């Protein structure tokens, strides 16, 4: 076999298909595919010789059958393309081609023609004529190609196609191979650009999410911290922390209190002497608080106040903060001052003598209480009048619930006491209801917030009437007032 023939065979890739061509196979110019005339069945009668020009009948018949064969193949290709099937269909095409060759005993077009025609017909039947023209143009070369194919067995190539034709043939072969090769390929994955916000799908999904994230971040950064978050951010000083730990302030387990040497059988166990061998409660260290607590006056209006002949210490604060309970805890005389879990229990200013030289005053609470608004307002006015005008009032213990901290009404009273230059001291109550760290935080918070107050007496006292924590310390502070107070 000559070199050129070999080259043509390379172009055809499947020389076997071309090999089956009969000797008298001629490709025609201007022939129309039979399906344009409504015949897609491959009937012999379908090929109407009269409509083909420049060919004799015999040839026409052969051409028709060829065309029919080509169309048959085209149809197969169409189906192949529609089903998007791969090499399987290509095999079918080849087998059909072979079938046609075997069955008819006639020439079948070479693979390149078949695929070319298939490609053309699959999109536009008009392309068939163009393809036929191409076929005609390449007539001679294809003749030789076919002849080459035949020459595989017997003959050698007579003349070679021009280089231009070879290129064209190569191109067509490429296109054909592309058509054939593209089918088995998997669908191309569409890669979405995450930064392309013009993409609707991105807008619906990732892009919006990112926007939301950014907005959320901005809001988080710019939004003011919640009160709770601010409170959690407080770093108590080491001195406050150690005070809290030393006095077992805050919520503690019974075992912890027992290990510290306190008798948990007693009420307010921490208000005792640790590791005492005495099974009973030790005596109160401050003499003044050993006195009997005696109720001696109650006032709902200022005119009912008793004569101010002894120093007084008053206990003010919101309703239910633990004022009455603290009086009992300080004197260890439970039941003398009535307490209740119902806010607003104390409805008048109650005066209690502790011995002959000292008086403790239980004030009605302000803020939320189970009472009518006008009644509560009357209590509040009474309390304000008492703390701002009372002669003999040496100190106001302003009780704040450790859990809730200071409220606007507390600040109102502070402002009033500041104006009236009444000495006041903050007492944090119910410390047993929160964690030790929160006791320290609250103390720190209040100390810092009231730093500039002139009438405020430091330090902030931390107590629990229930556990007895901090009661002894408060007693020490108050007994000094009672001892040195003069009218
Ligand atoms: N856990 C705990 N509960 C307490 C403490 N002190 C008081 N209580 C409870 O709090 C509730 C209210 O106590 P009170 O002493 O009546 O409070 P108050 O401030 O006098 O209330 P008003 O008279 O209504 O203004 C009662 O149920 C007490 O048992 C404490 O230190 N710890
Ligand atoms: Mg009370």
Characterise this structure.
- The chain has 487 residues and is α/β, with parallel strands linked by helices.
- It has 3 domains: 3-182, no CATH class; 200-232; 238-484, Rossmann fold.
- The protein is built from 18 helices and 7 strands.
- A 7-stranded mixed sheet has the order 1-3-4-2-5-6-7, sandwiched between helices.
- Mean pLDDT is 73; it is low at 1-11, 14-24, 26-65, 84-133 and 153-158.
- The chain has helices at residues 3-12, 15-19, 57-83, 87-104, 111-123, 126-137, 139-151, 163-182, 200-204, 206-222, 227-232, 238-246, 254-259, 323-331, 373-389, 408-420, 436-449, 471-484; strands at 293-299, 312-317, 349-354, 359-362, 393-401, 424-429, 456-462.
- Bound molecules: guanosine-5'-triphosphate (GTP) and magnesium ion.
- Residues 1-161 are annotated as: Disordered.
- This is EngB-type G domain-containing protein.
**What is the CATH topology assignment of the largest domain?**
Rossmann fold
Count of folded domains? 3
Top-tier CATH class of the largest domain: Alpha Beta
Q: Which class best fits the helix and strand makeup?
A: alpha/beta
Measured as a percent range, the helix fraction is 40-55%
Strand order of the main beta sheet, please?
Answer: 1-3-4-2-5-6-7
**Bulk shape:** elongated
Present as ligands are: guanosine-5'-triphosphate, magnesium ion
User: Order of helices and strands, N to C?
Assistant: HHHHHHHHHHHHHEEHEEHEHEHEH
Strand content: 5-15%
What value does the Rg take, in angstroms? Answer: 54 Å
CATH homology group of the largest domain: P-loop containing nucleotide triphosphate hydrolases
GO molecular function, one term: GTP binding
Cofactor: Mg(2+)
Keywords: GTP-binding, Magnesium, Metal-binding, Nucleotide-binding
Biased composition (Polar residues): 113-130
